Structure formats: C-alpha cells, structure tokens
Amino acid sequence: MSISSVAEKWVEEAAALTQPSRVVWCDGSKPEYDRLIEDMLRDGTLLPLNPRTYPSCYLHRSHPSDVARTEQLTFICSRDKDDAGPTNNWMAPAEAKARAGAYVKGAMKGKTMYVIPYLMGPVGSDMSRVGIMVTDSQYVVASMHLMTRVGAVAIQAMRRDDDFIAGLHALGDLSPDRRLILHFPEEKLIWSVGSGYGGNALLGKKCHALRLASAQAREEGWLAEHMLILGIEDPEGRITYVAAAMPSASGKTNLAMVISSLPGWRAWTVGDDIAWMHIDATGQLRAINPERGFFGVAPNTSPKTNPNGTAMVRSNTIFTNVAMTPSQEPWWEGLTPEVPAGLTDWQGRPWHPANGPAAHPNSRFTVLASQCPSIAPNWEDPQGVPISALIFGSRRSAVIPLVFEGFDWNHGVFLGSAMSTETTAAITGQVGVVRRDPMAMIPFCGYNMADYFAHWLATGPKLAKPPKIFRVNWFRRDADGKFLWPGYGANMRVLKWMVERVRGTGRAEETPIGYVPAPGALDTDGINVTPTQLREALRCDAGEWLAALDDLGQFFDGFGSRLPAPIAASLAETRRKFGA
Ligand code: GTP
Ligand code: SPV
Ligand code: MN
C-alpha cells in the first residue's frame, strides 16, 4: 500500500498530538477483522453470542452515557459563523482546536492508534470519496470494516495527494463533559473525542458522508443527503428508483428493505441511510450509497415488521446495547411477542421492568449490506441508479397527511424545507418533541441551511426531467393514539401510487399543499385499513396547517435575507390557498 506524503504527514501530526505507543495502518482484510474481534473478546469489549444460532455475532455494551449522537456537542467550525448558519452549533476553528486539543493531547498514551483509510462509495465510481481516520477504539475499526471499504481500495481511489477527509477520533474518558464532535469544512477535517458510539465515532458516516460531504457537494454541484435508496419493481419487471429522506429512527432502514404484500411488487435495497446524488451527462439524477453496511435500529425490528432485517443479522453482525437471552441470543423490544425469561439488559444487569426497556431504545446492529436478502444486484454500480422520485418523510402524530406530492421541483423543495418531526432515541435528549427538521438534515447539514435550500433550488433546472417530490408520514394517529396507517409492508402501496404518478397514470386531487391520492387511487386491497381511517390519514386541515405554517414562518425568519425567495414565496402562496 503506498500512501501520499500529505496523508503520512497528517497521521504523524495526529500521533504527535495523541502519543500512542504504536501506530497500525489497517488493510481492511478478513484476518485483520478477526484479530480485532479476538482482542475485543479477550478484553471484554465484545461478548460472544450463540455460535450456533448467531454465528460470528457479538454484543458490545457502550458506556451508559454514550448511547446516541449528542447534537449539543456537535459543531461546524467554519471560519465565518454565518457559513454554519442559525441551525448549527458553531465554534471558531482555533477555539475548537484549543478546547478539544486539551482532551486529545496524550489521549492514546499506552494505546494503539489505528489508521483507517476508507472509501465511501462503490469501487471505480467518480462519485466515491476517500477518508483517512485515526482512532484508539478497536470497536470503531471493526465497525468501519463493515460500514466502509477499508484499505488499499481507498488509497487507490485518491485523485490527488490531499484528496481525503481527515478524521481524528479518540475515546478520551467518554464523559459528555469532555466530548466534542467538530467539523472543519474548510480544512476537510473532523475531530471527535469523548464518544465511541455510532455517528459520533464512525466518522465515515454522519461526519464525513453528510456534514462535510454536503458542503463539498454544494461546491461541486451534487447532493449529499440523509436518504435511503430503493428500487421498486412492478409486476412487469420494470424498476423505478427512489430516494427518501427521513429523520433518524423514522423508517429509512425499514422502507429500504420493505417486503410488499402486493402481488408482483417488490423492493430492491440500494442504501438505507445516505445517498450521494450527481447529475449525469444526460441530465439524469443518479444516486450511490456511500456506505458498505447498515448501522440499523434494533427495537421493533421483527420477522413481522422487517423480515429482511431480521434475516440479515443472523450472522457476522455486531450488536450494540441490545439485551441478551440466557442462551446468548440478542433480544430487543418487539423482536418477539413474548419477552423471554431470564434476560440480561443492555447494561449487563438481570433485566427488571423497573429499569426500563431491556434493550436500549437506540440499540443497533452493524452488518454488511451484502447480507440483506433484498440487496439490489446493482447496488455497487459505479454509475449509481437513476432516481425518478424523491421522498421527504417525517414522524408526526398529527397534521401531516400519509402522502402528498409537490406541484413541481421548487414546491417540492419547499415541502422538504417545511418538514418537522418528533424526536427519537437516536439523539440524546427528550423523545417525542416536535422540532423543525428540513429534509431530515437539521443535524447533518454542514453549512448554512438557507444556502442548502438555495442549492436544492438550483439543482432542479440542471435536471433534464426533475424527479417528482413527495412527502410521507407513516406515523399519524387517531383520537385513541393508534396509528392510522399500518406502515411497514403496507408502505409499498404508497410507493406504487408514486410509481404511477411518475408514469402519469396515478390519479390525484389538488389541495393547497400538493396532490393527494384521489379516492380509490391508493391500493388498499388486502390490508386492514377502513375507508374512514384512510380518509383521516390523508386529511389536510386548513386550521391545523395555518398554525403549522406560522411556526414555519418563524423558523424561516431566522435565516434573514439568506432565505431564498422561492421558499418564502411558496410559504406565502400556501397560506393564501388556505384562505389566510
Ligand atoms: P436511522 O438509522 O436512525 O437513520 O433510522 P431509520 O430512519 O433508518 O429508521 P428505522 O427504519 O430503523 O426505523 C426506526 C423505528 O421506526 C423502528 O422502531 C421501526 O420499527 C419504526 N418504523 C419504521 N417504519 C415504520 C412504519 O412504517 N410504521 C411505524 N408505525 N413504525 C415504523
Ligand atoms: C442517525 O442517527 O441518523 C443514524 C445513527 O443513522 S448514527 O450513525 O448514530 O448517526
Ligand atoms: Mn440516519
């Protein structure tokens, strides 16, 4: 493996700062992975799971105060505060390095520093990008093996000596008081200290592939989005590809591998969390999945809700913060209808209901995408897949209809920018609080979100045939608090209507917020939804919407004159249509 001098120099600097006793360059090989697993089994970082029913599967328990992304400790460190914008935490680059420098200085004393060259995206794709991260966590190295393409394959994809995102990760003491996740877009640099969990620590994922990539994408004219990618095959065998943005723990993994109850319709998984989308020479939007694996939410993943999800984690999977049965099998709430006796909870204690759920609500599995039964045969196509529709979905108990379609590109971008959602366990803090989350990117946009809206608006006219843009909400509830829509496999019905809309055959009715399915246009044959429930799920209420648009207007005001005029115009026009 030959490595550029720029990369070598950066690694030397990282080592000088953190002072490890040893530096190991990772090659991404199976023997390397096996050695890491052996080491971690020996020191207790991993626990073995049942080798007969879950071969090569392991359980990791993270520190109880390190179980989800910590957004309040995540910063965009652009030189100019306005370039981070009002929705991001900002710190001046020098201050950020001084503060975090105190935590990382000597942080790897007596430890091994692993250098991980990783490739985000398929081998041989112009859309793929390289990162080089260092870490003192073997769990992070093993996870990066599953989530990215590690080793020579990354170094060979560098187009110049300095063509990589540099990432410094140190566990520190895992205290939230000494935790910082810092992004330096102008330096193509990430510093993360004090957390070993998920998006805080697997730097290829949110830090690189979303926050820094979104900033890079804007400069280079592409899109880096918090989106799943999915192929929808109809009974004639034609495949329509869509990408869908949904906030954390709000349905991407589930939709990406949905099993349809509609005869002849099936889904092909291309990605479950991040989409990088470029415009090709013909003006077609094409998407790649930059990741190699899934870091998916465990709770409520069951043979009923997500059969592909449960099938793919039966081998070669690292589970984090799930519970364990007496026969060393992983368990989480919703996996089986009955709670098994004798569970050990996610903190290693005999489970007691008074201690809360047995598995942490943000417990997860890490597994290669290739293990998913519905993985698309072309999921690693260097050209990506052609995108015909974009979906913005959020988690809202009220107000937001099951599905509606934007009038055109600009209106669709407005619908994405208008998204709000109820918070989930994927982020530390209160669950179920409604917050603004444009395009499901509020925690992941690496620059000023007003400029991000402008970038989206500017992308439409560059496309020969802009994809249709839809909004969805699987989570609307009735007066008794029950979901109005069965969700999961039934979501294919909504996808089918979208495919028909793309082809110009799906019937729709116009409302002030967009097109909704006309009566009978949504195929509910064979699923348990009454006409009243469907009407409720699709209902668009003027009073509720006007209140929601007031809140949206205040949010937009925070961007000042940087808010693009077409976004403000769409808001005004919607209010007018509702009679305001
Ligand atoms: P991140 O990995 O955090 O980005 O999450 P995600 O968007 O991939 O969410 P995921 O598919 O893992 O779903 C999160 C939670 O929502 C799980 O507990 C699912 O069971 C639940 N969920 C997913 N789809 C549906 C649905 O259609 N209806 C309902 N009611 N719940 C759903
Ligand atoms: C999310 O929170 O959106 C995730 C999990 O996909 S993490 O990798 O921890 O960010
Ligand atoms: Mn996510």
Description:
27% of the residues lie in helices and 22% in strands. It is an alpha+beta fold and 580 residues long. Strands 11, 12, 13, 14, 15, 16, 22, 23 and 26 form a nine-stranded mixed sheet that branches. Strand 15 (275-279) and strand 16 form a beta hairpin. Helix 14 (542-557) packs antiparallel against helix 15 (565-577). The protein is globular and about 65 Å long. The N and C termini lie far apart (65 Å). Bound molecules: guanosine-5'-triphosphate (GTP), sulfopyruvate (SPV) and manganese (II) ion (MN). Sulfopyruvate is lined by residues 69, 198-199, 205-206, 248, 273, 295, 426.
Can you describe this structure in just a few lines?
By secondary structure, the protein is of the alpha+beta class.
Properties at a glance:
single chain; about 575 residues; alpha+beta; nine-stranded mixed β-sheet; eight-stranded mixed β-sheet; 28 strands; about 25% helix; globular; binds guanosine-5'-triphosphate; binds sulfopyruvate; binds manganese (II) ion
Sum up the overall morphology in one term: globular
Q: Report the uncertain regions.
A: none
Helical fraction: 25-40%
Describe the sheet with the most strands: 9 strands, mixed
Which structural class should the secondary elements be placed in? alpha+beta
Average pLDDT rating: 97
Radius of gyration: 23 Å
Q: N-to-C terminal Cα separation, in Å? A: 65 Å
The DSSP helix count reads 15
Number of strands: 28
